[in-house]
Write a structure and sequence with these properties.
Elements: H1 10-16, E1 18-21, E2 25-30, E3 40-44, H2 53-73, E4 81-86, H3 95-107
Parallel strand pairs: 3-4
Antiparallel strand pairs: 1-2, 2-4
Helix pairs in contact: 2-3
């Protein structure tokens, strides 16, 4: 079972979802009540914030892994769709830092 959000659904989440801003990332969330589907997330990293492809890919890996581990722990409601956008401060952070930030954003209503 994958936790990746298909690219075609990003716009849907942006149009109907709600954003939560953190220090390391911005999270857009769309809750679908009554759905038993596994939470899914897509990630976005801007070339403007991260000029080198190596840095962009690391930021994507960090956000995907943090989301995967938190889903495994049951921190996200069923049926939620997320789009995670990296901020410049995520550079040099560990996966645990990103997990803490994402947990705080998941608790916001």
């Amino acid at each position: 079972m994958t936790t990746r959000l298909p690219g075609a659904k990003y716009k849907f989440v942006f149009d109907r979802g709600r954003s939560f801003k953190g220090r390391l990332l911005v999270a857009w969330r769309l809750e679908t009540p009554g759905s038993n589907a596994q939470p899914m997330a897509g990630v976005v990293v801007s070339k403007k914030s991260f000029h080198d492809a190596v840095d962009r890919n690391r930021a994507k890996r960090l956000m995907r892994e943090a989301f995967r581990l938190l889903v495994k722990d049951g921190c996200f409601a069923q049926g939620g769709q997320w789009v995670l956008i990296a901020r410049g401060q995520i550079a040099g952070k560990s996966c645990s830092d990103v997990m803490k930030e994402l947990q705080k954003l998941a608790k916001l209503k």
